[in-house]
Every structure is written in structure tokens, then in C-alpha cells.
Amino acid sequence: MSRRALFLDVAPGERRGVVVLDGQPERLLIERDGEPDRPRLGETWRGRIGTTAPGFRGAFVDLGCGPAGLLAAEAGGPPVEGALVEVEITAEARADKGPLLRRIRAGQGTPGRLAAAPALEQRLQAFAPGAEIHKGLPAREAADLAEESVLATVHLQVDEVSLAIEPTRGLVAVDVDLGKGLAGKRAVLAANLSSIRDTARLLRLKGLGGLIVIDLVGKASEHPEILAAAKAAFEPDQPGVVVAGVSRLGVLELARPWRETPVAERLLNADGQPTLRTLAQRVIRDLDRAGRADPGAARLVAVCAPELAEVLEPLARELGPRFGVRAEVGRAAANTDIGIP
């Protein structure tokens, strides 16, 4: 039976909630102070219907915040341009796509949020009702591991089996590689079954959805155990998951609904590099770690690039008076040193 544990890491400027499934990170929820407001999954908003989107059989809706959302067409005719409507956020914005919306009723007033998403603790608790939420050092370690896993492409499993998960514009490709020491039909089947379970967990962790293709090991077929494993592994993502089966080429095809903004989009810029805010949060954690390791040091200073120092200074002040920041012209943003001045 699968078991889930919950962790909440709190640092200046950031809170990270982690769900761990059987010892491995399954979900990472990040909240940062001062970030731009955005419509979030499950929230209720009021918006104004704008231009229709015939190619998507719906209309764009101005929510008064962020990119316009897409409201699917419904029975009874096309949406009326300019009308106000109350909607639920069924999928958050991602890349160049706005959020997806479900109409609740006609609206009155100005566009904006009507009902906010639950607090992070409540959302975290919903994944394991009644479970204790662990904090402190164990939570910091769990969150760091989860963040590292989110940004990794290759994930090693037991017996040297590895998964490579690579999102593209049209789908998420998953490649399963078998360890050199494994052979035989049962070993191949076992590797495929464990890889399907891990793929489901990692997709939840990364917040990825859409069309998923898993290139299984060997000459995979629609083995009953393969299909059963896929349905069980993706059951937490229902409703909306479709397991299409295994193709003649040994590729397992399925679809997982997009719901969350991919976590990597929260951590990285358009070039795939950590944002200044992500780097600043990492330095804050390093400063905190250094302070705990050397409680006798009167003061610890992070020497960093000027553009990073601007983001880092208010976070360091929140950490405490013994921590400081010094900008050094010419230093790369990703290169920060921490020491005693």
C-alpha cells in the first residue's frame, strides 16, 4: 500500500510544500512573496468575454490579471462579446497559453478574483488527510530534493533502470532504459511496470500533462499488467486521464490533463536558466545552512552579482542581522560565495 508523507519548508520569501510518496517526491507546491498575482487552479474569477476563438471552439476572457483565459463553447450559442461571466479556473496558465475556464454563471461588476485557492497547508493536507505536516530540517531536505528532481531530465531507478522525461511543444516524451545487468522477460516486464509508476509520480511532481508517450523497454505489447499498472499509477490524476494502450512499436500512449503551471516554469526563465528569484532563494538557504553550521560566526556575507544582490538583500534582512549581502561587479549571477567578512 502506498504511503504519503507531507513536508512544509519555510524560508524568507518562500514556502515549499512537498508530498512524498513511498520515500520519493511526488508533488512540489511553491509560494513566493511578492510574485505577480495569477489565477490558480480551483479559484473563482469574474471576467469579461472578449474575442471568440473559433479554432478552439470558445472565447477568450479577460480576468483583469495575467493572460486572457479560454472559455470553452457550450450548448446554447456562442458567448456574447463584452458580457461578464463568473468562471472556475480548471487549468493554470503555462508558457504562452492562458488558463482554461469553466463557466459558472453570468456575472456583475469588474473582472477579478472572487474566491481564492486554499492556503498552502490546506492544499498540502488534501493529498494525505490527517497526516502530520513535517517542518524544519527534514522539510528543507525534502523540498531541496523535490526541486532537484523537478529540474532533472534523467531519473535513476533501482537496478540501473533510468527514465528520461523531456517535455516538447506537442507532448511529453519518456524514454525507459534498462540496466546492462538485467535480462529476461520477467526483468523487462518488472522494469516497465516500475517505470510506469515512477513516470506518473514524476509527472505530478513536475506538473506536466497533455499527450504522454512512454518508450518502454523491449518489445512491449498490450500486456494486461502494463495496462493495469498505467491505470493504477495515474488514478490520482483522474478525472480526465486516458490510457490509449501500447502501440505496435512498444510505446505506451496516454493523456494526462493539464492542471498546474509546470513547476520548472516557476523556477526557470525562458532560456531554461534559474531566474534571479530562484537563485536568491537558493542563496538564502545556503546562508541559513552556513549560519547553523557555524553559530559562533558574528556575521556571514553572500558576495554576489549586483543584479542578484538587489533581489537577495531584502530576503537576507528577513533572515536576521548577522547575514549580509555584498555586490561585486563582474561576478556571474550563478556564482555566489558565502563567508565571514
DSSP strand (E) fraction? 25-35%
Global outline: globular
Average pLDDT rating: 92
Number of domains: 4
Low-confidence stretches: none
Q: Which range best describes the helical content: under 10%, 10-25%, 25-40%, 40-55%, 55-70% or over 70%? A: 25-40%
Compute the separation of the termini in Å: 52 Å
Structural category: alpha+beta
CATH architecture of the largest domain: 3-Layer(aba) Sandwich
Do you know the CATH topology of the largest domain? Answer: Aminopeptidase
User: How many individual β-strands?
Assistant: 19
Major beta sheet summary: 6 strands, mixed
Q: Largest sheet, order of strands side by side? A: 11-12-13-14-16-15
